Structures
1.
Amino acid sequence: MVKLTMIARVTDGLPLAEGLDDGRDLTDAEMYKQQVKALFKNLSKGHNEASRMSVETGPYVFQYPCPGRVCYLTMCDRSYPKKLAFQYLEDLKNEFERVNGAQIETAARPYAFIKFDTFIQKTKKLYQDTRTQRNISKLNDELYEVHQIMTRNVQEVLGVGEKLDQVSQMSSRLTSESRIYADKARDLNRQIIIVSNSEVWKLLPVGFNSEVGSGCHRVRSRVPPLLGESKAVLVVHTQRPNTGQNIIYVSRIMAEEPVNVNGFRELARQTLPKMYYDFFTGGAEDQYTLKENEEAFHRITIQPKILVDMSSIDLSTMVLGYSISMPVMIAPTSRHKLANPSGEIATARAASTCNTIMVLSISSTCTLEEVAACCNAVRFFQLCVYKRRDITAKLVQRAENNGYKAIVLTGDSPRHGRREADIKNKIIIQELKNVEGLLSTKIVTDKGSNLDALANQTRDPSFTWEDIGWLKSITKLPILIKGVLTHEDALKALEVGAAGIIVSNHGGRQLDYCPPTISVLEEVVHAVGGKVPVFLDGGVRRGTDIFKAMALGAQAVLVGRPVLYGLAAKGENGVRRVLEMLKEELELTMALSGCSNVKEITRSHVRTKHDWQLLSLL
Ligand SMILES: Cc1cc2nc3c(=O)[nH]c(=O)nc-3n(C[C@H](O)[C@H](O)[C@H](O)COP(=O)(O)O)c2cc1C
């Protein structure tokens, strides 16, 4: 009896078709399918021992002939005649090649030829009963003789693969360690040269073009280690120029064009090496606060006012006296070059195009001078105080001299939060540009994250509210305090003369289980009593989130990760699109809620969980 039938492409093990009804009455069907996939994987690595294989597994046996570009495999009872099994596969092969032969190389998704199941079922029926006249005559027919069947046990066959896998894992570890060097090379000229099967392959990333012409083929299994462990499909076009070199253009079939900023996250995931995607996306420890930052917005509802004149809507607002086109700014985030070789320059240009403010992180990968020179966006400079106060003072001075309009002092990071993904990945980071020549930021540790080591080595954990007097003494720039989550700290910020407060938990990257920012915004706003503007960051992903934050008293919001995702996916244009999407969504939210300008967004436009509880008591 034929129990399973599976068809896969040999170059990469991609399943093309299978008998859909197969395995329904089989205990452990899933386990056997996994074994088949492992066999396909072996074959894709060129491990095949004979022209016909019989691989025994429990009461069954996998039969498959030496594959060409496609492997046809069936699993039958051990008692089922091998001769019939191979004849069955031969019938499948003839029909499959006839119908689908031209598209086998270019198939991009698993089970692209699932319709072939109809033929599998029909043919399987013919072979099910070995005693039919047709099958008896096939068994007796010398024409269908099968020779050289090698019988092995599944453990033996997969065991060989396992050892080879170990070797391949070791080599992919080496590959991932060498990725940092590959990235540097990519920074230089976006080209990587690799040697594969003694041939030199030149990889030229060509962005996100999903167009594939004829002659393209996929070498998925070979290329991903170089470009990260993205699950994106790689399409490779080969050419043989006069030099005899193979040039392969690597492209990715990307997810659909994003329709909201969350879509950019998926694009970023496909684009970035895992280590860097994890760095951008991750939070501290259990990532409770990280998740809650977004979730807490979902628990707030909007109370719209209807039949209001919405023929024109003005989203502009003022921040420290600067007019911006919408109440959304770019939060300080470090190391933009890990997302895109243009780094903070691309981000700043997008901010400038969208007429909003960018807060440049002290841990940027372009210098504050380079960013200042690249565009005329209004810029603030984010500061963490270094142990070396003289260097901190120099940086503040440089920011002032280069036209930065405010200092954003991050108060929530006396030590580095425990970001376990970075620890697991043993993240490798570049030296920091702003302190080049002033402070060594080259850290290489074997024990976990290099970021922890760097922060602990350089930052001053003893800096307190009292020291803000010192900071004020070295700059005329207004100082915003970032990281406030309680009314007590809000009052302290007022006492020390802060020009503004940013309610922030560092995007859930510092203290886990501290509250989501939107849940404490109102407490801070009440404590401040309108004396200075209050801003918020953390989990803002929608125009409705911005609206909710403003209704609860924020002057504007800042966004961190969405900007990085946009930058990773599409560079400057990606950041611009992220900002535009948020703006468009906010405009729509205002239109549907009856607010024609940001001042008209009031507390009465939202209900929090607390409001609902109070209402239920009435
Ligand atoms: C990758 C990354 C790097 C960050 N680097 C900094 C930094 O250098 N200084 C800082 O004050 N905050 C930093 N933050 C925190 C952001 O300023 C901001 O508080 C947070 O990203 C807001 O949350 P969101 O990402 O959900 O929008 C960083 C956040 C991320 C995701």
Note: Residues 261-298+322-595 form a domain with the TIM Barrel fold (CATH 3.20.20.70).
2.
Amino acid sequence: MMDWTDRHCRFLHRLLTRHSLLFTEMVNSGAIVHGDAERHLRFDDVEHPVALQLGGSDPAELAEACRIAESFGYDEINLNVGCPSDRVQSGRFGACLMAEPELVADCVRAMRDATDRPVTVKCRIGIDDQDTEESLDRFADTMVSAGVDALYVHARKAWLKGLSPKENRTIPPLDYPRVYRLGARLAPLPTMINGGIETLEAAAEHLGHMDGVMLGRAAYHNPMLLAEVDARFFGDTRAVPDLAAIMAAMADYAEAQQRQGARLNAIARHMLGLANGRPGARQFRQIMSVDACRPNAGPEVFARALDAVERTPLPAAV
Ligand SMILES: Cc1cc2nc3c(=O)[nH]c(=O)nc-3n(C[C@H](O)[C@H](O)[C@H](O)COP(=O)(O)O)c2cc1C
């Protein structure tokens, strides 16, 4: 998620789930091909499996970005056909491409020719006044004939005229049944559903209809949700680290990253929700957000935040 997630966030999420596929935020293919690829693509081996999400609509440039990405070891390459930002529309990529399935298909073909990794697409159920039955089927069929390996569908339209990107994540209504119908129609192509899924109970229900579930905001704001994913959905019942172990692992990680020039806050900002629902969570968030920004702040901030949770008594039972 642009401006939210990054490799530090993925490092944290990987401590909580060994099996979930993690995604990068969208990276413009031009920034990889013509810019600082190392800065955009470098990641830690422990983050695997990781999908790189590309934004773009120039088949040759996307193909080149795939070649570069493959050399960095990404496990999957995903093309964004869902982002509604103006910045993105003016560059002719993101959700506006839902109106140009043939161009997206050319991109997918070029990407598949350039890499052995699975090439997938993330889209909406439609844009603006598109008929979500007819145009989504046409879009998806065009992707299938281009050889796409899987589709991720955000179960709402993007309204490109009149809504901000933020509004486009809440205002257009969710239509899960439409995505289920698409999944059934495209089977055996793997199809994943996304949008407004906030609990693992809800995820389990969707998995009755779909091959996978993608979580965005819920996983970001409430990362501990991920701690139950492996046991519940992947049959891996190995123990997951508790809050104290996560804070210790993140402190070691932060120390190493700070030696390479990272700021503590760049890591701490992804950890604010770790204590949600526990007594002391407010103080935890405050220490992690305020103290981590101070000049010379080091990983001892994490120990202090943990202490605030461990020292806060549970409310008395009534
Ligand atoms: C701050 C922010 C940035 C986002 N950036 C991306 C992005 O880079 N690529 C993408 O495919 N979706 C992006 N999204 C959309 C999410 O991936 C997801 O489709 C959307 O939030 C709905 O799912 P959710 O309700 O589980 O969050 C972003 C969402 C937010 C809140």
Note: Residues 1-4, 25-26, 53, 80, 82-83, 122, 154, 169, 194-197, 215-218 surround flavin mononucleotide (CB under 6 Å).
3.
Amino acid sequence: ILKSPDSLDDCDVALILIDTSEGITDQDITVAGYAEKRGCGAIFLLNKWDLVDKSEKGQQAFMKELRQMAKFLSYAPAITISAKTGQRCHKIFDQVSKVYKEYCHRINTGTVNRIIEDAVYREEPSLHKGRRIKFFYAAQVATRPPTFVCFVNYPNAVHFSYKRYLLNQLREMIPLSLTPIKLYFREKSGKMDFSGNTKEMERIREKKKKITQKKMKQRKEQSRKKRERDKKGTQ
Ligand SMILES: Nc1nc2c(ncn2[C@@H]2O[C@H](COP(=O)(O)OP(=O)(O)OP(=O)(O)O)[C@@H](O)[C@H]2O)c(=O)[nH]1
Ligand SMILES: [Mg+2]
């Protein structure tokens, strides 16, 4: 357990091994807490499942307790295994690659904006000192884990419950269920809106401009050559 925080530093997907014959201990939850704090992917391995009460009720009660004690890792799947019999151990690597895939997920700016714009439209944030909190645009700024930024007029005034709402919307719409995701708010004061001035739009506009310039250049070159040819013809 002492090595856990360090080894999590360069960890993408943490496997949290729980000895179910001992029940869920505080130490298990502490380790789970490290994984959450590091923002890595996580999977619970519930070992010695062969010794757990076989009744469905007993198994459900165990899962319920785990989810209750580790609420903060609700995105972490749990696999019940037996190291002794090998039961379901083969499922571990499948699950690791699923979690890792989501952990590295990237979506385009247009989609992020549409999700946030739609969420804000359906559920407006509450006023900040009588003023509206305006959302200008949003973007994914990192992966491992997927990290998003919303540009707003009052970044510190966005209530944590509203942040949670937006995080849930991103999770649902992208969709991402197995990885932690992060969301930050940054200040943007100038006039901008979703449809007209996203980074994506700016890139497209820039590209169009370049193409137009290139075409103009080509046309000028063509007419210059034509003039030269005409000149030669008359000589
Ligand atoms: N029934 C069962 N026994 C297991 C399983 N995995 C490990 N064991 C046994 O549990 C005993 C203790 O091993 P673990 O608890 O895995 O190892 P540990 O936590 O490093 O050691 P302890 O401090 O003794 O708990 C050994 O005799 C293992 O064979 C399992 O999935 N099912
Ligand atoms: Mg043990």
Note: Residues 192-196 have pLDDT under 50 and may be disordered.
4.
Amino acid sequence: MPKQSFSGLRLEGTLSTDSQEIAYAAADFGGIISRTPLAVARAHSPRDVRSVLRFAAEHGLSVTPRGQGHSSMGQAQAVSGIVLDLSDLNTVHDISSDRVVVDAGTTWAALLAATLQHGLTPRVLTDYLGTSVGGTLSVGGIGGTTHRYGVQTDNVLSLDVVTGDGEFRTCSPTESPDLFNAVLAGFGRCGVIVRATIPLIAAPERVRRIKVYYPTAAELRSQQRKLLRERRFDFLQGQILPSDAGWVHMLDVSAFYTPPAEPDDATLVDDIGYDPARDKIEDLSYWEFATRLDETVTYLETTGEWRAPHPWPNLFLPDRTTDTFVDQIMHGLSHSDLGASGLILTYPVSTDVLTTPLFRVPDAPTIFLVAALRFASSESIAEQMVRSNRRWFDSAVGLGGTSYPVGAIPFTEDDWRNHLGQAHQSFAEAEARYDPSEVLNRRLKLTP
Ligand SMILES: Cc1cc2nc3c(=O)[nH]c(=O)nc-3n(C[C@H](O)[C@H](O)[C@H](O)COP(=O)(O)OP(=O)(O)OC[C@H]3O[C@@H](n4cnc5c(N)ncnc54)[C@H](O)[C@@H]3O)c2cc1C
């Protein structure tokens, strides 16, 4: 096959076939699969995005947008195509009293730092803020305030997109809603998000964070259900963690506040089995709280686990079958099945706050996220974990569950179709309308 020439592609940013850039774009956080692109384009403007998409359409190439590449299994990689890296498209534009206009390549950390200067915050933040705005809006974006506000894709006022046909378009719930609904949580298959307008609320100054430990996962979930119903906390999560004595089950909840108002600790911990000798209450600034994972990242960098393979499966289960599912996966699970710093993240969400059509969750009033943060010490262990993830997925589907496809669960075309369910038809129509030459991530395969 003749070597593809990119000489006709002029960008304000860069286009590179240099081996270092290719290696960068062939890797992701998951470290499980690596697909080699033909070239890496770094967009410095929305015009660059349009030029790349038009060039690709003319030359029969595929384009995969990439934010920060924190996907687990090749979601932002391209085979024999162009990786369109958006990380340099990262200006925070206007911040007004209730919204911000921001470029898609901006990280949530940079966005939050900018909005906090105005005493404002997005309603929903992911646990780790090193992800990009365009990246999480292309998948969903769940966090500890999701039980209140939905996922990040439920909190978008409008998007500027370059669609696969190389056209600039603005979309919102009222302007081209078909495109809006096909781009949010659409894994970059219809268009590239270049800019988003995101609603803001007053940021709390401080956070009272409470961790309570329970002997069983069932007890943790029972407390989480109660707190979800009561809406006692602003932030609601939980974890199953390895310990010398087996597994511990930690409720992780927070109340946000701004002095002089202050939450009453006794009221916050009333009737949730809080034991001052065992459990923990801490007081943090909102920024310290939002960036709480930074310390863990530094630790994982020192142990080498930040660069090791991360076969992280993310699943949603209906409340009614979550206990059965968690019992199934915990049965015989050893600490080494998660890896040295592994844990299982689990928390409930009421689905009435979820409005994004492509963010597929079980049909139930309450669902639980069950996400395993697995760390593999070798490629063969990563392969075993990925196989086990697939078994977990099959079992979850049998119990009415769905996958959150940012993770490392092998997904075939049929799985995508089943996953999209009733949204499949309108999504396929939007793909045909906005990306007629099939330039973008059209065959997004999650296979090792
Ligand atoms: C440490 C860590 C913690 C995490 N915590 C959370 C969490 O709390 N909640 C949560 O929901 N997720 C979480 N994730 C998962 C994360 O949100 C997703 O992997 C997300 O996609 C990462 O953003 P990114 O910018 O790295 O996207 P990438 O991996 O670069 O891309 C993700 C997908 O979106 C597409 N895409 C990227 N940018 C654009 C764009 N501008 N336009 C169109 N398509 C685009 C890509 O082609 C790809 O399919 C976490 C991941 C890590 C590594």
Note: The domain at 206-403 is CATH 3.40.462.10 (Vanillyl-alcohol Oxidase; Chain A, domain 3).
